[in-house]
Amino acid sequence: MTSPEQARAALAEARRVQERARRSARWFTWFLVATGAVSIAWITAMEAVWPQGRLALAPVWAALFLMAGFWMNRREALPLGAGRSLMAATLTWFALYLVVVGPVTRWQWGTSVPAWTAASAIAALPFFVAAWMRRRA
């Protein structure tokens, strides 16, 4: 049987390990925010700044996203449900850009930088919402 001192020590160790895991996984919130910010810059660059370079910029985005995924999986701690959060945000972002934001902005404003910045910020909302939800958890 364990003594009360051993139980207290075990609880203290559990709290320490829990806090260390929480600190180690805190990076994921900022990863989501950075992904949203980079997607705003990428869409604006691709649609307004250099529209003729779409075919060159799309593979660059895909390569960056793939490298970020590899980097993410090599981290010390990955929060529970991180992959699901990232996948849901990415799919929602892609659907918003492909089906709603992209066609409407291209049709109404052409290559206007302010319009594409605002539109890409709307499309990037899933990343920011996922980061906010993670921060609250």
From TrEMBL:
Ranges annotated as spanning the membrane: 25-43, 55-73, 85-107, 113-133
Record's keyword terms, sorted: Membrane, Transmembrane, Transmembrane helix
Protein name: Uncharacterized protein
Source organism of the structure: Actinomadura rubrobrunea
